Amino acid sequence: MSAGLDKGEMAARVARDIPHGAYVNLGIGQPTLVADHLDADAGVVLHTENGMLNMGRAAVGDEVDADLVNAGKIPVVEPPGAAYFHSADSFAMMRGSHLDVCVLGAFQVSAGGDIANWHTGAPDAIPAVGGAMDLAIGAKQVFVMMTLFAKDGTPKLVPDCTYPLTGVACVSRVYTDLAVFEVGGDEVVVVDVFGTTYDELSARLDVPLRRG
Amino acid sequence: MSVTICESAAEAVAGISDGSTVLVGGFGLAGMPVRLVDALIDQGATDLTVVSNNAGNGDTGLAALLAKGRVRKVICSFPRQSDSYVFDGLYRDGRIELELVPQGNLAERMRAAGAGIGAFFCPTGVGTPLAEGKETREIDGRTYVLEHPIKGDVALVGAHRADRMGNLVYRKTARNFGPVMATAATTTIVQVREVVEIGELDPETVVTPGIYVDRVVAV
């Protein structure tokens, strides 16, 4: 199988599907890269769960301010039009269905749209959930961005998650290095394919696919 | 009761009892009341339950309190970080108890405590291990989990500025859990950069009204 998209290209593909004017939360890790590919004219407003709307880019040099960080605790800047609020308000925005899109990383996503991304379940692993469970059930649309296969070659798009769940039937789209999928319906729809074929994907995945 | 403006962090944390539940503000180090936590280490209270978003960074502040063996249990959303090795070691050795709470539930459970709410039904975590054993209810076709308040004996909060009434303003994302924790504890102790005279804070910009604040110290 030839190589598909790299991380930056995956982020750009996610960014293409974010509606103009949307309020968006980008999960820590790879989803953060999506911000680099949003058109400045698109009017997308980024939310960070530690209490800011219209969050800016990463701070550099003298811009770094210990009081101004994103959810990954990376210093960011304050663009005009930003707003600050406390943690209970921040999560009320999610739960209350005011966020249009969130983009999360994942260990596994099921055909039915379940997501597992907070705990491997390994006995010596230290679990950390952060805001993932609140985001998963709160945003109007949940996008997942992940590689389609784990390093050992096992698929991460699965009939049922084997890792502990983060949220049930909440993911709508899965953006991977090899394809984009719609999940959560009766079948998994392949929306886009990169560097592979529909037939090859069908052969390697345990979930029934339909061409989009 | 009206607010006490303390001369030192030691005076601010005086009297915290062994076995207390201590709410500690901050998201990582942003808004973390480091001087109050350091003073609590010197003060000596032990067998504490600490409620905070994270479980300490590096060797200082909350991590130092943990390293001294003063904390029996941590209630938090995100203990595992690149520099959380103090907590990681205690947890793997079975020397500290962890109650992992989704971040929004952590905030809302403290908000409920401060607002006199007995419990609330919340959609977060339905069908996951963090909701196991909890009462659920279907409301208008959606399943919710019953979540109970988290009340503190003490809250340690970091804010930007206080006036002598105890009114607080915060700065940027250092606000995070501070305003919620300030409402949720019997005694709220606040570390600020500056205490100003009455009338110097614009009442329209006050985030935490002084009614929630018991002691303030400028550090």
Task: Offer a concise description of the structure.
The complex is a heterodimer of chains A (212) and B (219). With 212 residues, chain A is α/β, with parallel strands linked by helices.
Keywords, separated by commas or semicolons:
heterodimer; A: 212 residues; alpha/beta; Glutaconate Coenzyme A-transferase; 10-stranded mixed beta sheet; 3-stranded mixed beta sheet; B: 219 residues; 8-stranded parallel beta sheet; 3-stranded antiparallel beta sheet; 14 strands; globular
Q: Uncertain runs of chain A with pLDDT below 50, 5 residues or more?
A: none
User: Can you identify the CATH superfamily of chain A?
Assistant: Glutaconate Coenzyme A-transferase
The strand count of chain A comes to 13
CATH topology of chain B: Glutaconate Coenzyme A-transferase
The computed structural class of chain B is alpha/beta
* Number of self-contained structural domains of chain B: 1
- What is the approximate shape of chain A? globular
Strand runs of chain B, count: 14
What Rg of chain A is obtained from the alpha carbons, in whole angstroms? 17 Å
CATH level-two architecture of chain A:
3-Layer(aba) Sandwich
Q: Termini distance of chain A?
A: 21 Å
What letter string, H or E per element, gives the SSE order of chain B?
A: EHEHEHEHEHEEEEEEHEEE
Q: Average pLDDT value of chain A?
A: 95
Biggest sheet, spatial arrangement of strands of chain B: 1-14-12-9-2-3-4-5
Give helix and strand order of chain A, one letter per element, not per position: HEEEEHEEEHEEEEEHE
Share of β-strand residues of chain B: 25-35%
